[in-house]
Amino acid sequence: MEKPLDRVDCEIISLLQEDGRISNIEIAKQINVSEGTVRSRLNRLIKNEIIQIVAVSNPIKLGFTLVGHLRISAEPTHIEQVAAQLREIDQLWFIVATTGGHTGIDAEFIAKDLDEFNALILSRINRIQGVTRVETTLTLDFLKRRYDWGTAGPA
Asked: Taking all residues of the chain, what is their mean pLDDT, rounded to a whole number?
């Protein structure tokens, strides 16, 4: 059973959300625990997929000409198989199961150009057994992107 987040976990996460490059030593100083405690907590948080420590980039500024959102409808009996195949597609970097007016999956994608985008939709996703419809939305610009929302755990 996964240990619930406590105050120390939440403080570590909040500090990392503000600055993902902060050192374990600095975290330890700010929340008044040992560096070893921070290190072991971080290892657990990463291992349990509670956090990832990565550089968040802007795909538009990195040269991807097409960035956007996909709403993928699928036959209810094929959702797991569709999701498994979608996870194998490198251009899809965010995939979630959803509720609402369709049975399906939402995903965010990146593509270097129109040819890569067409291949993604027509040759890869539309050919997955169980996919019934794919709706696309292109991102024109990121108007707000924040990752410092804290935690729902104890403060």
From this structure: 92
